[in-house]
Design goal:
Layout: H1 2-24, H2 30-54, H3 61-64, E1 67-69, H4 73-80, H5 82-90, H6 98-113, E2 117-119, H7 131-147, H8 149-182
Antiparallel strand pairs: 1-2
């Protein structure tokens, strides 16, 4: 079941975004475009394979601390479309430039297969006093997705990218605390 799920995820979050971006922009530079699209699709497959290989490891350090290793495939798929979102709202052909889109696609591919610690939803545990506000925030984001989908998707991507250094910093702090706890007194 897990392998079939990962195969479906690879098609949905790896191959489909790569093909969409290739047909939207990258076919203007076919060799570079195919390289970037293939690099992204392969990186997605590798990311999902690593996830499946480590899913049963109870002592995987990032998982036990509430972090992912690399950008998850669904998030990567959302992030690779950022140039498309920006082009849609601005109609600026710069965002459709195949060189820019190729670099962006390869950068997102590297983020997916990197060892960068990214925060997981499981790490987010709002205090009881804030739970109603968090539910309201998600409701507002849902309403924004309906009324202003492109701007909302841009904002979600920007927030996620801005939180990448926070995840790296927080995991480094957790790692230091674990090393200190393991050292004899």
């Amino acid at each position: 079941g897990a392998e079939l799920d990962s195969l479906a995820d690879n098609v949905s979050f790896g191959v489909a975004p790569a093909l969409i971006l290739f047909m939207w922009s990258l076919d203007d530079l076919p060799r570079v475009g195919w390289f970037a699209a293939l690099a992204y699709a392969i990186a997605c497959a590798l990311r999902l394979a690593r996830f499946n290989a480590q899913i049963d490891l109870p002592d995987e350090p990032r998982k036990t601390a509430g972090f992912f290793t690399g950008v998850p495939a669904p998030v990567g798929a959302g992030l690779v479309f950022l140039p498309l979102y920006l082009w849609t709202v601005s109609d600026n052909e710069l965002f459709r430039d195949p060189r820019l889109v190729s670099v962006w696609l390869v950068a997102m591919a590297f983020l997916m297969i990197s060892n960068v610690a990214t925060m997981s939803w499981g790490k987010l545990r709002p205090r009881r006093a804030l739970r109603l506000e968090v539910i309201a925030l998600f409701g507002l984001v849902g309403a924004a997705l309906i009324t202003e989908p492109w701007w909302t998707l841009i904002a979600i991507c920007a927030v996620y990218l801005a939180l990448l250094p926070v995840g790296i910093f927080n995991y480094a702090k957790v790692k230091r605390q674990r090393v200190q706890a393991d050292q004899p007194a």
